[in-house]
């Protein structure tokens, strides 16, 4: 299993809009494309409280490429993203890392 950690740093004040987009649109589209989430987190204490961090679970890099590519080009996603950004940009920066569990990890 491969896990992808994605961190979204929002434009100041726009975290609620990002959370709403995930809750009302993104997760439904991920289900449509077979994308599996492994947890969502907001920052309680850290560099910025305007961050959303989440994990995705992938069987392989090939699965990620196929499903993520289909999601990103889905007209429903492009429409949902545009509508959610009608009041302005939401995300200022995205960091993505692909991780593999260690032999002693509780998550495999």
TrEMBL record:
<dbReference type="Pfam" id="PF07978">
    <property type="entry name" value="NIPSNAP"/>
</dbReference>
<feature type="domain" description="NIPSNAP">
    <location>
        <begin position="3"/>
        <end position="105"/>
    </location>
</feature>
<dbReference type="InterPro" id="IPR012577">
    <property type="entry name" value="NIPSNAP"/>
</dbReference>
<dbReference type="InterPro" id="IPR011008">
    <property type="entry name" value="Dimeric_a/b-barrel"/>
</dbReference>
<protein>
    <submittedName>
        <fullName>NIPSNAP family protein</fullName>
    </submittedName>
</protein>
């Amino acid at each position: 299993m491969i896990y992808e950690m994605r961190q979204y740093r929002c434009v100041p004040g726009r975290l609620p809009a990002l959370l709403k987009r995930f809750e009302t649109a993104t997760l439904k589209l991920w289900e449509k494309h077979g994308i599996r989430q492994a947890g969502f987190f907001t920052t309680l204490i850290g560099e910025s409280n305007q961050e959303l961090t989440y994990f995705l679970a992938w069987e392989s890099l090939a699965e990620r490429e196929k499903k993520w590519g289909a999601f990103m080009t889905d007209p429903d996603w492009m429409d949902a993203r545009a509508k959610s950004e009608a009041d302005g940009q939401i995300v200022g920066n995205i960091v993505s890392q692909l991780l593999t569990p260690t032999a002693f990890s509780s998550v495999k």
